[in-house]
Amino acid sequence: MEMFPVKLKSLTTVLAATLCFATAGAGLAQDSAPPVAKVTAATPPPKLIVAISVDQFSADLFAEYRSHYTGGLARLASGVVFPAGYQSHGATETCPGHSTILTGNHPAHTGIIANNYFDLSVARSDKRVYCAEDETVPDTSSGGGKYAASVNHLMVPTLGDLMKARDPKAQIVSVAGKDRAAIMMGGRKADELMWLFPGGLTSYRGTTLSPVAQQASSAIAAAIGQARPAMDLPADCASHDIAIPIDKGGTVGTGRFQRDGGDFRRFMASPEADGAVLAAGAALRAARKLGEGSTTDLLILGLSATDYIGHSTGTEGAEMCIQMHALDQQLGDFFARLDATGIDYAVVLTADHGGHDLPERNRQNAWPAAERVDAALDPEAMGKAVAEKLGLPQPLLYGDGPFGDMYLSKALTPAQRKAALAELVARYRAHRQVEAVVTGEELANHPISKRSPDVWTLMDKLRASYNAQRSGDFIVVLKPRVTPIPESGLGYVATHGSVWDYDRRVPILFWRKGLTAFEQPNAVMTVDIMPTLAALIDLPVDAAKIDGRCLDLLSGPESSCRP
Ligand SMILES: [Zn+2]
């Protein structure tokens, strides 16, 4: 594959060799495999489910690059394709998005309403709570790697949890670039669950990685430690290769992913990170013989590089173009190794949220109204101004940025609280960049929509993100085209998280050997994935306990869903 970046391939080869990629096969002879039989309702369940989340892989990126894919994404794009998948809720961040994929539930029910929320009743001084931490562990705080990773906040079971409950022999392995991805998809009962860190792979405090995971970790640590030369620019990325100046100096748009040895941040924001997760996943599959036992196993892979690349360089530069080619090729290599085992496996691939480009490039590309958020919307600044005006104690307002959930201080009398809420809501509403401000009380009284997610109202979207225990006193919604980063700096120029469709729409792709291809362009949701996979392995799911529905993967009159 000429356009394939040579440097990346060599990395994958190095990792593969170290991780015994070549022996990933279980000795099931490929040459004795029968010709591909069409999957029907009578076909036994697959022996392995591979659930892949590509962080920030928007429906727009999938559409833009679909005709260029030749590897793993081309394979998935020729399966059962839902190009208009929705992370239907309003707070389109990583943790909430990952919490929907294998639980069948909106964040309203998973409890994962945001990456960070506030709990003013926690004992420690830092009242911010990270979605995937245990804030009751002494000497922790929500940021800066000082938290104790935990699944505690997830309020519902995952597919893996249900598989384990039915048959403890079912193996569940979850590997991701980010802890919140591995945890929110992996659930409570995973046999192995790990994520990338500067030392390779790590897991919950006090746990020890298995020998194979340790081997993978060492190989990844060695790769991180090595300097990486620039990657080649695939020929069809040339039109993206334009330097865009950013506020704090420097440019984005022409990057090639070269980095110094030991630069973990750049490692994560490059195709290398996805290669590491895929290599580790393949090594763990082989070592644990996933897909070779009496029951169906589950391998969960969280590929985070696309998100870090989107945040640091936007979605339309050479960097993302290189990443789309690399992701396609690395997934292709991964599937080829699975094919060689002869295991009957089913794949689902989706994303935790969409994304969009940085305003500086959007303005150059026919979207002149794109802009950055006004720093005055910062909750600290807003709270200070209102507290001074009304003579209220400070700090008055807590929020994790200029939009989303906002929490009022608990040190207010009911009358003060009422006055503060009224003044804050009025001030936010009056700002020209604010679309709407909705109170928690209003959302509590709004039903969860049963309509198709493409026609959801603003209230419907926010309601799917609302959890009475964790949501803010009010929620601020920015207008479309407003990027909630006040100033672009190296490493952070673009983001997601909004209620708008560029952040909600993601592809949902299913593939299994012998499955008749079809495309359904109407809207479906990521909460539909869990019941769809459960039906594929005859696992009963109580429809009253989930928000999604089973998607029938069999074209024609037969159905893959339970009667
Ligand atoms: Zn994400």
Short description:
The protein is an alpha/beta fold and 563 residues long. It has helices at residues 6-18, 59-65, 72-77, 94-101, 107-110, 159-166, 179-186, 211-225, 264-268, 271-288, 305-313, 318-341, 359-364, 379-390, 414-430, 440-444, 458-464, 501-504, 529-536, and strands at 48-54, 80-86, 116-118, 128-130, 172-176, 192-197, 200-202, 244-245, 251-252, 297-303, 345-350, 371-372, 397-399, 404-408, 434-439, 474-478, 482-483, 505-512, 518-519, 524-525.
Structural notes for this entry:
With 563 residues, the chain is α/β, with parallel strands linked by helices. It has helices at residues 6-18, 59-65, 72-77, 94-101, 107-110, 159-166, 179-186, 211-225, 264-268, 271-288, 305-313, 318-341, 359-364, 379-390, 414-430, 440-444, 458-464, 501-504, 529-536, and strands at residues 48-54, 80-86, 116-118, 128-130, 172-176, 192-197, 200-202, 244-245, 251-252, 297-303, 345-350, 371-372, 397-399, 404-408, 434-439, 474-478, 482-483, 505-512, 518-519, 524-525. Strands 1, 2, 5, 6, 7, 10, 11, 18, 19 and 20 form a 10-stranded mixed beta sheet that branches. A 4-stranded antiparallel beta sheet has the order 13-14-16-15. β8 (244-245) and β9 form a beta hairpin. α10 packs parallel to α12. The longest helix has 24 residues, at 318-341. The protein is globular and about 75 Å long. It starts with 5 loop residues before the first helix and ends in a 27-residue tail after the last helix. Bound molecules: zinc ion. Zinc ion binds next to loops.
